[in-house]
Amino acid sequence: xxxxxxxxxxxxxxxxxxxxxxxxxxxxxxxxxxxxxxxxxxxxxxxxxxxxxxxxxxxxxxxxxxxxxxxxxxxxxxxxxxxxxxxxxxxxxxxxxxxxxxxxxxxxxxxxxxxxxxxxxxxxxxxxxxxxxxxxxxxxxxxxxxxxxxxxxxxxxxxxxxxxxxxxxxxxxxxxxxxxxxxxxxxxxxxxxxxxxxxxxxxxxxxxxxxxxxxxxxxxxxxxxxxxxxxxxxxxxxxxxxxxxxxxxxxxxxxxxxxxxxxxxxxxxxxxxxxxxxxxxxxxxxxxxxxxxxxxxxxxxxxxxxxxxxxxxxxxxxxxxxxxxxxxxxxxxxxxxxxxxxxxxxxxxxxxxxxxxxxxxxxxxxxxxxxxxxxxxxxxxxxxxxxxxxxxxxxxxxxxxxxxxxxxxxxxxxxxxxxxxxxxxxxxxxxxxxxxxxxxxxxxxxxxxxxxxxxxxxxxxxxxxxxxxxxxxxxxxxxxx
Length: 481
Prior knowledge:
Elements: H1 2-68, H2 78-92, H3 103-228, E1 237-243, E2 248-251, E3 264-268, E4 282-291, E5 294-301, E6 313-315, E7 319-320, E8 323-324, E9 326-330, H4 343-352, E10 356-361, E11 367-369, E12 383-386, H5 396-411, E13 415-418, H6 419-425, E14 479-480
Parallel strand pairs: 1-14, 9-10, 9-12, 12-13
Antiparallel strand pairs: 1-2, 1-6, 2-5, 3-4, 3-6, 4-5, 7-8, 10-11
């Protein structure tokens, strides 16, 4: 029995504990529920306040759209309104600062403009009224003046009728005077035409006499040169010593003669009188000026059958002792026969050898004159070098310049020399290598070359003629070594 009561007590205790626990939990759940309901009520109030604020903002937004005239009855995005606002501000308030680019400022600006225009309009209306008043006054004055003029016109018509007879008489007199003056003008014109024809005839006669004198002057100059010179050209110098082994010569020209290095000479036999008509035997080029009347030159062209000898004379049309030769150049200059112009090479040859080019015909056919010259060709010009004459298919300006330079040379009786003759006289040699193939080809023209990237090597002993070159001492007298 006691054991059963103990079980009941335990069960009762457990039941009480569960009841207490459930009660506490129920109280806590109720408390949380009450707090949650309060929070929900607060949140609902906040939502209602936000909805009221949104409704107010939407109303204000619609009111603002209505005020600015955008989106009336139609939903327009804010981005579209902003884009339209930017365009309108740029179009109408471009000169305003960014802070003043608003619709309010635009309205103020338009109002100011309207007020200004109204004031200007009122001023213009007042001025217009003043002008109308002035116009009325002038019209009244004009009416009075017109009445006066009409009266004077009637009086003038009466006077005209009275003076018409006198006018006819005066007109007849003027007509007679005009005829007399026209007759005088015709006589004067005929006399003037006769004077002009006489002057033209005199001018043609003077020109013909001038041309005749120019031809006579040229002929006289040529005769004087023939009579005063046993030869047309004299030698520039002579060879004093020859070293044929080293292909060197020494000439009797030097510093005192204003001789320059690289000056080329043609060599002629010592018995030659006129070097321009003699046959050239060799060419030399000055490489070193040794003294007042001594220079060293290398042989650039010669013939084994006609070797150079002491006493042979040398000549170049480019240089004279102590003076400069002047040249003009015309025509097409093709030295190496390759179809291309060698004008620059010819000018360089002349200037390198101490000559002066007064004028020349360029590759474009135009005439060029040396700086500082008053005329292209004058009495100081010594030679006219003639290249190939332009054919009839050449441009007209080309032909005109060529003729003009030749006419100037004829006027001043300038010596004309063909390009090939000139090159021969200065000792110029075209650097042209001719190779002959076949059974008769000289073996020496085809020599083996060094291997690719290798250095050339001697294939044997060399001739005694090929020695180290040393400048020889000037001899005591003329001789050949």
